[in-house]
C-alpha cells in the first residue's frame, strides 16, 4: 500500500513538473525541427492567404445585403487601420465593379481549390507531427467538412468579439473564445487525420494552441495596425499583402509550435502513466537528436543551393 502511494505521488510530481526538464524542451525543439517548423509555417500562411482573399471577395459578392467592401471594413474596424493601410486593404479585398456574375461561378471554383490547398497543408502538419501515412486527396471529403468548420469557427469568433468587446486589444473576447478554439483545434486534428489520432492525444495540442493563439491575437491587435500602415504607405497594395502574410505567418508558427508541444506532452504523459522513468543520459540523447536534425536540414538546404548555382 505504501509503495503504491509512493508511485502515485511520483506520477503526480512528474505530471506537474515534466515541462521544466531540459530534456522535454529539447524534445519539443527536435519535433519542431523534424516537421521543418518555419518552412511549414510559411506554406500554411501562403495557402491561408490564397484561400482568404477569394473567400472574402466571393462572400461579399454572393451573400444578400452584403456590400463588396464589407470584408475590408471588418478588418479595418477590427484593427483600427487608418490612412494608407485602410485604403490598401479596401483595394485588396474589394472586387472591381461589374464582375459579380463571373465571381459567383469562376470565383467559386477558385475558392474551392484554394481552400482545399489550405486544408491539405494543415492536414500534412498533423500527419507529419504524429508520424502518420499521408492521405492527400483521399481525405478530400474530410477536408471539405473541415473547411465548413473553419467558416463556422471564424464567424462565431468574430460574432463573440463584436458582442463582448469593442476595444482594439479585446482581451475579454479572446478569453471567451478560448474554449471554442480548443474544441475547434481538437476537432481539426481528428477530422484532418481521418480519425487516426485519438482525442486524448489531441487534448494537449488543443489546450496549448488555444492559449497561445489567444495571446498572439492580443499581441497582433497592438502591432498589426502599425505593420499595415507602414507597409501600405510604402508599397501600396503589395505592402498590405506582405503585412497580411506576415501576420498569418506568425499565427502559423504558433500553430506548428503548438502541435509540436502537444505531441510531446501527450507522449510524456503516456510514459508517466506507464511508469517509465527517463534514462540518466536523456538530455544528451535529446541534444544529439536535435543536432542531427539541424545538420540534416542544413545539408538539405546546402544541396538545394548548390543545384541552383
Record keyword descriptors for this entry.
309 residues; mainly alpha; 0% strand
- The value of Rg in angstroms is 22 Å
**Per DSSP, what share of the residues sits in E-state strands of 2 or more residues?**
under 5%
Which oligomeric state applies?
single chain
How many extended strands?
0
Q: Specify the structural class.
A: mainly alpha
Total individual domains: 1
Low-pLDDT segments: 98-102
Task: Give the overall shape, derived from the CA principal axes.
Answer: globular
- Arithmetic mean pLDDT: 80
The DSSP helix count reads 11
Order of helices and strands: HHHHHHHHHHH
For the biggest sheet, the summary is:
none
Helix coverage percent:
over 70%
Structure report:
The protein is mostly helical and 309 residues long. The protein has one domain (22-275). The chain is built from 11 helices and no strands. The longest helix is centred in the last third of the chain and has 37 residues, at 199-235. The relative contact order is 0.14.
Topology at a glance:
Layout: H1 2-17, H2 22-34, H3 37-62, H4 70-79, H5 83-93, H6 100-129, H7 140-164, H8 171-192, H9 199-235, H10 237-273, H11 282-308
Helix pairs in contact: 2-10, 2-11, 3-6, 3-10, 4-5, 5-9, 5-10, 6-7, 7-8, 8-9, 9-10
Can you give me a brief rundown of this structure?
The protein is an all-alpha fold and 309 residues long. The chain has helices at residues 2-17, 22-34, 37-62, 70-79, 83-93, 100-129, 140-164, 171-192, 199-235, 237-273, 282-308.
Amino acid at each position: 500500500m505504501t509503495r503504491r502511494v509512493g508511485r502515485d505521488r511520483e506520477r503526480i510530481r512528474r505530471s506537474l513538473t515534466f515541462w521544466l526538464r531540459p530534456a522535454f524542451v529539447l524534445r519539443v525543439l527536435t519535433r519542431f525541427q523534424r516537421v521543418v517548423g518555419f518552412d511549414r509555417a510559411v506554406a500554411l500562411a501562403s495557402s491561408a492567404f490564397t484561400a482568404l482573399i477569394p473567400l472574402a471577395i466571393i462572400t461579399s459578392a454572393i451573400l444578400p445585403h452584403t456590400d463588396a467592401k464589407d470584408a475590408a471594413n471588418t478588418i479595418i474596424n477590427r484593427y483600427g487601420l487608418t490612412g494608407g493601410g485602410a485604403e490598401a486593404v479596401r483595394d485588396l479585398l474589394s472586387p472591381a465593379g461589374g464582375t459579380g456574375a463571373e465571381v459567383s461561378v469562376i470565383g467559386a471554383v477558385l475558392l474551392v481549390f484554394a481552400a482545399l490547398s489550405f486544408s491539405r497543408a494543415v492536414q500534412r502538419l498533423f500527419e507529419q507531427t504524429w508520424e502518420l501515412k499521408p492521405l492527400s486527396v483521399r481525405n478530400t471529403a474530410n477536408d471539405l467538412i473541415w473547411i465548413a468548420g473553419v467558416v463556422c469557427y471564424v464567424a462565431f469568433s468574430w460574432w463573440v468579439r463584436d458582442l463582448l468587446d469593442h476595444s482594439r486589444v479585446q482581451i475579454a473576447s479572446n478569453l471567451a473564445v478560448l474554449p471554442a478554439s480548443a474544441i475547434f483545434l481538437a476537432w481539426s486534428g481528428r477530422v484532418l487525420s481521418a480519425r487516426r489520432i485519438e482525442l486524448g492525444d489531441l487534448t494537449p495540442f488543443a489546450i496549448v494552441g488555444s492559449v497561445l493563439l489567444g495571446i498572439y491575437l492580443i499581441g497582433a491587435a497592438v502591432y498589426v495596425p502599425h505593420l499595415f500602415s507602414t507597409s501600405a504607405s510604402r508599397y501600396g497594395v503589395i505592402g498590405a499583402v506582405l503585412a497580411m502574410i506576415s501576420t498569418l505567418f506568425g499565427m502559423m508558427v504558433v500553430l506548428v509550435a503548438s502541435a509540436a508541444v502537444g505531441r510531446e506532452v501527450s507522449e510524456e504523459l503516456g510514459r508517466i502513466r506507464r511508469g517509465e522513468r527517463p534514462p540518466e543520459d536523456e538530455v544528451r540523447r535529446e541534444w544529439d537528436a536535435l543536432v542531427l536534425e539541424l545538420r540534416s536540414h542544413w545539408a538539405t538546404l546546402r544541396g538545394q543551393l548548390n543545384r541552383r548555382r
